[in-house]
Fold:
Amino acid sequence: MGSIKAHTLRNGKRFDAISKFYRVMSGEGPGENYWKEDFLVEMETVLIETPPLRQVALSYVDKHGDVARIYLNPMLEFESLNRVVFTVAHEFAHISLKHHRGEGTIGCTAPDTEHKDMPHEKEADELAGKWGFKRPKGNSWIDKTILAYARGLKAERTKRQFISAMEMTL
Structure:
């Protein structure tokens, strides 16, 4: 894995999740499907890096357009391995669906739509589910932490601005 050689991904849950995703997609373990192997063979080059805080994960093409990138936040180390594995699968689904290149269901949504409810996010969830990776129930550790902070804010206007900036609802 090039991301390990480039030192953009180190041991921990993010590394374990990438490894598990690869094992499942290459046919190891339950639910062997040869079409999963085709995904790995046909997939473009992907560089895995770490984004800034609160940006849980993101897939996009670099400025030259030749390398897809997946960013995995260091805060994912506080999540369950199951949630991290799902996040990895979800981001690879975006790449498979060409969302990082502006294709698929990416488009305008209502301004108050939560990120996870946007069409391209649901589409990536569905593909990850088809591969055998289900979205864990409940809020992530990161979301719980942000919501707890927001609830503690005294001024309602500040609270609304903060929650809006985090693309969440109370």
Notes: Residues 1-7 have pLDDT under 50 and may be disordered. Residues 18 and 97 are 19 Å apart (CA to CA). Residues 81-96 form the longest helix (16 residues).
